[in-house]
UniProtKB/TrEMBL annotation:
Pfam families: ABC_tran (PF00005), oligo_HPY (PF08352)
GO biological process: one example: peptide transport
Membrane topology: Peripheral membrane protein
Descriptive protein name: ATP-binding cassette domain-containing protein
SUPFAM superfamilies xrefs: P-loop containing nucleoside triphosphate hydrolases
Entry keyword annotation includes Coiled coil: no
Alphabetical UniProt keywords: ATP-binding, Cell membrane, Membrane, Nucleotide-binding, Transport
Keyword Transit peptide in annotation: no
Gene3D superfamilies attached to this UniProt entry: P-loop containing nucleotide triphosphate hydrolases
Length: 327
C-alpha cells in the first residue's frame, strides 16, 4: 500500500500565559491508502492537535506548527497557502469531530449545509446539490431523507447529526477522513452503527481513515495500525493485533489492562495510578516515569527514543535499550 499522508517530525506548540506547551512534540507517522490508523491516548496527549495541524487549523498567535513536514499526495501541506489548503480540505481531506453541533450552523437547514460544499467545491447547481444531498442522507442510513433535508439541526438527535456530518465529510469523496472522537458522545448501539458505516465507506471507496479516540474498544474494532500518544509524543505504535497481543511500552500495557470489550463504550480509559505530567513542567526524561513501575534512574534524566522493538512495532522506553538491559 502506498503512503497517502506522511508526517515527519511534527511539532506544534502553544503559548499560554504560564509558558510554552509542547502539545505535539516531534511526531512522525503515516497513513497508507485504504488503511485505518487509530491515534489513542488520554485527553491532552496531542491527538487532536496532530489532526488540527494536518488540517491547517492551528491558529497563531496562540498555537504554531514550529517544525516538521506533512506530505500529502506529493505536497507539503505546511508550505501551502490558506487557499490551497482550503481546497484540499474541501476535496481530499475531510474531518469530523466529537460534537456535530459545533460544526453545524443552527440557523441553516440540514440540506443547505450539505449542499454548500457541493456547490462551492464540486460546482454542482443548486438543484443537483439538493438531489445529491438527499442521496447522501440516505447513504448514511437516515430514512425520510426528503424531510430531513429541510429540517434544522435542533430537530435531529445526536446520532443523526453525526450521520449528517459524515454525509458532509464523504460528499467530496475524500482520500483521507480524519475523525476526532466521532462516536464518543453517542450511546453504544449508535456508536457501533456509525463505526460500521465508516468501515463500509472505507471499503467501498478505498478512503483512508485517521481515527482519534481514547477508547480501546473502538481501536480494537477499527484499527489496522495503532499509534499511542502520551504527553505530546508517540510512545508506542504497531500493527493492531501485535499491539493488543504484546504491548511493549508500560503505558500501553497499562491501557490494555482494562481489557476493552468490543462495542462497549468506555468513558474512562483505565486506571493507571498517577496523572499525566503538567505540560509546563516537563523535563528531559521519560514523561511516563512518575507512573511507571519499571522506572530506572536513566528514565528520570533522559528521554528514550522511539525505536523498533519487534517486527512492525516501535516503542520509546529505556527497557528496550540493549546496552542497558544486557549490560
Ligand atoms: Fe518506564 Fe523508563 Fe520505560 Fe519510561 S523509559 S516507560 S519510566 S521503563
Ligand atoms: Mg481531543
Amino acid at each position: 500500500m502506498k503512503d497517502l499522508i506522511q508526517i515527519d517530525h511534527l511539532s506544534t506548540y502553544f503559548n499560554t500565559e504560564s509558558g510554552k506547551v509542547k502539545a505535539v512534540d516531534d511526531v512522525s507517522l503515516r497513513v497508507r491508502e485504504g488503511e485505518i490508523v487509530c491515534i489513542v491516548g488520554e485527553s491532552g496527549c496531542g491527538k487532536s492537535v496532530t489532526a488540527m495541524s494536518i488540517m491547517g487549523l492551528v491558529e497563531e498567535p496562540g498555537g504554531k506548527v514550529v517544525n516538521g513536514q506533512i506530505h500529502f499526495d506529493g505536497k507539503d501541506l505546511l508550505q501551502l497557502t490558506k487557499n490551497e489548503l482550503r481546497t484540499i480540505r474541501g476535496n481530499d481531506i475531510s474531518m469530523i469531530f466529537q460534537e456535530p453541533m459545533s460544526s453545524l450552523n443552527p440557523v441553516l437547514k440540514i440540506g443547505e449545509q450539505i449542499m454548500e460544499p457541493l456547490i462551492i467545491h464540486q460546482k454542482l447547481s443548486k438543484k443537483e446539490a439538493r438531489e445529491r444531498a438527499i442521496q447522501l442522507i440516505e447513504q448514511v442510513g437516515i430514512s425520510r431523507a426528503k424531510q430531513i433535508v429541510d429540517s434544522y439541526p435542533h430537530e435531529l438527535s445526536g446520532g443523526m447529526l453525526q450521520r449528517i456530518m459524515i454525509a458532509i465529510a464523504i460528499s467530496s469523496n475524500p482520500k483521507l477522513l480524519i475523525a476526532d472522537e466521532p462516536t464518543t458522545a453517542l450511546d453504544v448501539t449508535i456508536q457501533a452503527q456509525i463505526l460500521d458505516m465508516l468501515r463500509q465507506f472505507k471499503e467501498q471507496s478505498n478512503m483512508s481513515i485517521m481515527l482519534i479516540t481514547h477508547d480501546l474498544g473502538v481501536v480494537a474494532e477499527m484499527a489496522d495500525y495503532v499509534i499511542v500518544m502520551y504527553a505530546g509524543k508517540i510512545v508506542e505504535e504497531g500493527e493492531v493485533v501485535k499491539l493488543f497481543e504484546s504491548p511493549q511500552h508500560p503505558y500501553t500495557q497499562g491501557l490494555l489492562k482494562s481489557k476493552p470489550v468490543l462495542n462497549q463504550r468506555q468513558d474512562e480509559l483505565y486506571s493507571i495510578p498517577g496523572q499525566v505530567p503538567n505540560p509546563l513542567e516537563l523535563t528531559e526524561s521519560c514523561y511516563f516515569h512518575d507512573r511507571c513501575e519499571h522506572c530506572m534512574d536513566i528514565c528520570r534524566t533522559q528521554q528514550p527514543k522511539l525505536k523498533e522493538v519487534a517486527l512492525q512495532q516501535k516503542a520509546a522506553c529505556w527497557l528496550y535499550e540493549e546496552a542497558l538491559v544486557h549490560g
